[in-house]
Amino acid sequence: MKKLSVVMAVYNEEENIGRCLESIKDIADEIVVVDGNSIDKTVEIAKKYNAKVMFTKNSETHFHVQKNMAIDAAIGEWILQLDADEIVPPELAQEILLTINHERSTIDGYWMNRKNWFLSRFLTKGGQYPDPTLRLYRNGKGRLPARDVHEQAVVEGKTGKLKHDLLHYRDRDFKNYLLRNNRYTSLLAEQFAEQHLSINPISCIQYLVLKPVREFLWIYIRHRGYIDGFPGFVFALFSSLRFAIAYIKYWQITKFPSYD
Questions:
Q1: What are the angstrom distances between the C-alpha of 11 and each of 20, 41, 139, 216?
Q2: What is the residue extent of each domain of the chain?
Q3: What pLDDT is attached to residue 258?
Q4: Which of 30, 63, 81, 170 suits 53 as a labelling partner, its CA being 20 to 30 A distant?
Q5: How far apart are CA 127 and CA 129, in angstroms?
Q6: Are the C-beta atoms of residues 34 and 13 closer than 8 Å to each other?
């Protein structure tokens, strides 16, 4: 049997990490958790599942660096990279075991579709499903570029795809969604700074009006987000506003750096 290492980076995830680790306890030969100095019971819960816990300074925007730390510390032949708010259902767990123990396979990494929970349901439209993500790969073959919050792992070699879905309980309430949205828009503002985006009437209209309107129509109309009811509308609206929010943050740190 090939050994599987489950790796994750966490910070104050006491509400989520127990369910995540419970879902993989029967398939993981090793659990590696990089903790950003949580102040809740995250580490205590992780240790109940015999996780190897490493500590580092928390980075709210570039946490993929912490995920790479967990990847580098793993000793299993295969790595399954998870977030604390994700759950591996039994059918996916069984498929993972069968896949990594297929002796003749030449595949080095596997994609899986992900169902994303938003407020009261799993979103089925709005471009949110299927949400393919590359999470299972041979040790030494996969790594995160650590440049963008929504990036995928990069795998050296051939990739395939699993049949069963990963469950992502991402935004169970609006308060936590806004906290995450604040982090992501701050990262987007940093990207604007790296690009030296000009602040002028044209870019103002583009990022405060045109991009948000286009994004809302793309999610809600083109990708039929309306089928997901009120949660689908809220998701489309606030996803489209990320451009305006990030632009305003960028404008503030550019014009008034002392307030950053």
A1: 14, 10, 24, 31
A2: 4-171, 174-259
A3: 62
A4: 170
A5: 6
A6: no
Query: Would you list the DSSP string of 149-186?
Result: TTPPPEESS-EEE-SSPEEEEEESSHHHHHHHHHHHHH
Is residue 85 within 8 A of residue 16, CB to CB? The reply is: yes
Please identify which residue in the block is written with the tokens 């439209």.
125
Class of domain 4-171: alpha beta
Cα 240 from Cα 260, distance rounded (Å): 24
Alpha-carbon gap, residue 190 to 61, rounded angstroms: 10
As a whole number of angstroms, the distance between CA 78 and CA 81 comes to 10
State pLDDT tens for residues 96-129. Answer: 999 999 878 899 999 999 999 999 999 999 999 9
Q: Sorting pLDDT into bands at 50, 70 and 90, what band is 58?
A: confident
The pTM score is 0.89
Structure tokens at 152: 């995928």
> What local confidence, expressed as pLDDT, does residue 154 receive?
95
